[in-house]
Amino acid sequence: MEFISRGAEQTRRLGMRMGTLLQSGDMICLVGDLGSGKTTLVQGLAAGWGSLDNATSPSFVLVNVYRRPDGCKFYHLDAYRLSGAREAEDLDLDAMLDTGPMVVEWAERIQDALPEDNLRVNLSWMDEDQRDLVFVARGERYQKMLSLVRKQVFGVT
Q1: Is it the case that residue 121 has pLDDT exceeding 90?
Q2: How many domains does the chain have?
Q3: HEC states along 54-110?
C-alpha cells in the first residue's frame, strides 16, 4: 500500500489509525532517511495505541517506553546507533515484544534481529510538506492489519 502524506499532521493521523490496531508482539519497522517522517508517524502510532506520553526520538537512549493508563507498554527503538543485529539482540527485544508492540526506526540496520513477520514502512521525503509511505506486510497478522488500515484510510480492502 502506498500513501502520500500532505503534511506532518496527516502522517500523525495515519499513525493514529494504525495505532488503534496494535497489540503486544506487533513489530512495525520504519525505514527512511532523516526527515522522512519516521518519528512523526511514531507519534501517531503511540497516540492511537492510547499512550498519554509524547513520543520523541530515542536517538540518545535507544529505546523509549510509552505507557497507557492501564499500564501496558509501547516500545520505540532507534537502531541508528546500533552496529548491527548482534548489538540489538543484547537489548532482549523478545522480552519487550512479550509485553507490548514495538516500532523500530532505522530497522534495516538490525533486520536480522527482528521477527520475520512484521509491517515495514518505507518513508521518503518528497518535498517540504509531502512524504511517500510504502507499506509492506509480512505475515498473516500484518496482512490483516494493512487491510484494515487500507479500509480506514481509503474505504477499500
Answers
A1: yes
A2: 1
A3: CCCCCCCCCEEEEECCCCCEEEEEECCCCCCHHHHHCCCHHHHHHHCCEEEECHHHH
Residue 156 DSSP symbol: -
Q: Residue length, the chain?
A: 157
Per-residue confidence (pLDDT) for residue 76, from 0 to 100: 95
CATH number for the domain harbouring residue 66: 3.40.50.300
Cell numbers linked to 139: 505475515
The rounded distance, in Å, linking the Cα atoms of 34 and 88 is 21
Assess if residue 84 is contained within a domain. Answer: yes
Task: Dump pLDDT digits (tens) for 69-114.
Answer: 999 999 999 998 888 888 888 888 899 999 999 999 999 999 999 9
